[in-house]
Amino acid sequence: MRFVDFLNSKQGLRAARNHCFELNGVVLGHFTALFLHDNQIIFYQRW
């Protein structure tokens, strides 16, 4: 089975979608942590 055929199949689409969600979750998690960390520093410097 070729990779393109796998992606075109429903199973392949589901796997790719799940993988994208996991990737997005990791990126969002890191971004949120960095964002909150920066805001805490700004918040502490303000007081």
UniProtKB/TrEMBL annotation:
<protein>
    <submittedName>
        <fullName>Uncharacterized protein</fullName>
    </submittedName>
</protein>
